[in-house]
Amino acid sequence: MTDQALPLPQEEKQFSLAKDAFIRLVANRLAVVGMVLVAFLFFIAIFGPYLTPYDFLSQDLLSRNQAPSWQHWFGTDDLGRDILSRVIYGSRTAVIVGFSTVSFSLVIGLFMGALGGYFGGKVDAFVVWLIDITMSIPSLLLVIVINVSLKPPLVNWMDAQFVATGNEFYRNTIWVDFVLVFGSLALIKWPKAARIIRGQILSIRNKNYVLAAEALGVPTYKIVRRYVIPNAIGPIIVYISAALGEAMVLESSFSFLGVGVRPPIPSWGNMISDGLRIWQLYPHVLAAPAAVLAIVTIAFSFLGDGLNDALNPRQWK
Amino acid sequence: MTKLLEVNNLHTRFKVRNGYLHAVNGVSFSLDRGEMLGVVGESGCGKSVSMMSLIRLLPPAAEITDGEVLLEGEDITHASVNRVNAIRGSKVGMIFQDPMTSLNPFMKIGEQVIESIVFHKKLAKAEALKQAARYLKMVGISNAEHRLNEYPHQLSGGMRQRVMIAMALLNEPSLVIADEPTTALDVTIQAQIVELVKGLREKLNMSIIWITHDLSLLAGMVDRIMVMYGGYIVEEAVLDDIYKSPLHPYTIGLLKSIPSLKTEAGSRLPSIPGAPPNLFAEPTGCPFAPRCTYRVDRCTREVPALATVPGAEGDRPHRVACWVDMRGRGIAQ
Amino acid sequence: MNMHAKQEPLVVVENLVKHFPVKIGAFGNQSAVVHAIDGVSFAIYKGETLGLVGESGCGKSTTGFALLQLHKATSGSVKFDGVDLSKLPAKDLRAMRKRVQIVFQDPYSTLNPRMTIGEALAEPMRVHKICPEKDIQGRVARLIRDVGLNPNVANRYPHEFSGGQRQRICIARALASDPEFIVCDEPISALDVSIQAQIINLLMDIQEKYNLTYLFIAHDLAVVRHISDRVAVMYLGKIMEIAGKDELFGRPLHPYTKALLSAVPEADPDVERGRKRIILQGDVSNAIDPPSGCRFHPRCAHARPMCAGEVPELEDRGEGHFVACLRVAEIEKETV
Questions:
Q1: Is C277 part of the contact surface with chain B (CB cutoff 8 Å)?
Q2: Are C127 and A17 in contact (CB < 8 Å)?
Q3: The CATH number of the domain where A40 resides is what?
Q4: Residue C96, pLDDT score
Q5: ipTM metric
């Protein structure tokens, strides 16, 4: 009698985990819907301003608050600006803020999370303490404080630079808004990223395959690169997807409250805020940005859920 | 002896991502009052699922697709949920593998133990606690009254399993299903528990189904053994016949491959090649055929029926599901 | 295997101690120390298999891990081929890992799910520069064949394999750096019964083929007896008895060893019906607050007051049979 293990079962298909996850993702209908919508959003944000029928700033005071028509698909607002063009431009604001916020928070989160997760002990205790402190600050308050205290000096500085150098860049103080918005958003959001990354690193460090690699004599940097990071990546991707959606919503809420991106640069938030003033008379002015914001939120949550299921397949056992 | 339990053609399957997992594929057997039956097989052979199907204690993804279970003549498979709940607590006791997680860490031992009698027998709490203390003493827990006020983490693994046993017995069930009750325990503690259950069985005259993967463990304990593989019963016989004259190639292989304190040390163990089957495909032949040394053409085409053959000593019933006449070919006795 | 011809110790463990600090109490506010191993000494000779048995929590796995410096020992020394591993700087220790390897208990969690089998097996070859890059594929294929798998599995991922196949892969990985010594930490206890014999046979085959020395850690006495040349029995962080296999199983001297042996069920109804079990009372004592004197005395039927006061040392009873029991001579007389 032989005790050779039998050769593998006949099926010859080979699945890498990434491929397997992708197949699972595509099999999930809602996730596909989310994916398509998110892809469309990015497309619009990048190419939209070249496709818009009107300039988002051009006012046509003769055709104010027009209902949707063939000329203006989403209608016009109280200054006669084309709402579709403004929604499209607003997507650019949302995506810029979303991406910068998530990258910023991820960089800080990666650094802090990895620090805590890898070194443990007192360093970890300090990181956890910092995370808890940051999370306990009410985010709206933080944003308002940052805006109120930092915006005037920064704007003044930009103006002074413009006067001194004549460089056009300094004239465009909208950048101050952007930097403050995603700066404060990143400050709010990094603890969540740090928490996820710290948790991942802690759990993977205790995984037996890391111990096995140590026993094989694999150097530490290789263990981190080939064992820890590839296994931590799944939840981080899920986090990125969810955080992008959240950041866009937060940007809108702040702009709505007037502490985010200021008019005339369109943001869905300040458009909703504008629309609210006249919604009883002209509901479409509110409806268009609100609907788009809702759809984007839902799209990201579908995609996030899909990614989560695809990357952490629950075993049937 | 009278029949306590009769199971006919039981099928259970699990809904999984793309299809079904066929866990139990037509299991039929019966159990007499006071009898102790051992159910043995590897992980995924369907031993636990089929026994849990008896009282419909299954995860939501599982469904019983066919068959019937008669306990004292009452059809459980088609009974109402309320009725099954009543049966579970009062007529059937359960002992699970992991005593560490089967107890609620935030509840005192006493409260957990009496929960089911207070519910099923409507006993007053003080009366129930008195009875619980009596049962804890019976399962060998000293200082029982004191233990009732402790929390699970204050007890060792062996102690917790004793508590679980007391809980299972408290309603004086006619059937106790023990699902690998000693697998999580050390061998010296396992010996304690085995002795305890043997003693209790004589005292309380109940039927026991003991599920395990350890064929050796059953040798000193049960009356009859059922061997399961790939969701089927492949062999069933009284204790001595399984060990001394096994008829199924799987049983034969398994018995030979287990090193014992008597096998010739250092020699190669006669092992069974291959690995246990996955159960995603609906079986088209004998589940053991891919690993079987004695396989013939028919084995891969047709599922062998569990047929009664003459026992080694005449009238003792011996059932085996194999197309090959192992006795006729001189492989088995 | 003729051990007397090769009385050359490859591994010498001396007075190894491992204490884990833990937090106990409802709020984790009390510090305590788990005495996982408390002064363990033994030697392993070239080419032999030393079995290490005991119940869960007795410190057998910790001994294996501390031996390989995967846990830093609290005190004591581990000499491999004359070199004290516990004093080696990290870099030299990593280099030493080429020669000492481990097969873990759980083949499901010890393979990186993101690495193909080929990558996993090539890793140690690259790390220790076993062979030029161009030969790696060939070596990987040969290893895979040696553990009884088909070489075309190299570009598959671990999740495509069954438990038994994964354990074969883990064994191949341990072999990849051409080690001399392998710690087998319960290598079969996570596997299905019908697979266990395959892996035991495989471990014995490659031991012969690659000329390996094993420390075989297990809780299953029958398996340890089958594969080992000598066997050490541990209880609560101490070695209770150590002897040649036939000697230990044929003439167990320590009351704990006897109880352990008598608790092992046999697949034979006649034996089981006739057997008189030594049923130990109570549970294994707590490693946070181990009993004074002999660690086994609270459960020992032969215990006398002196057993609580004095810690028994391993005592030579002849034929390489060492027992740590104060009353071993009297007990031996009683039972004869």
A1: yes
A2: no
A3: 1.10.3720.10
A4: 93
A5: 0.84
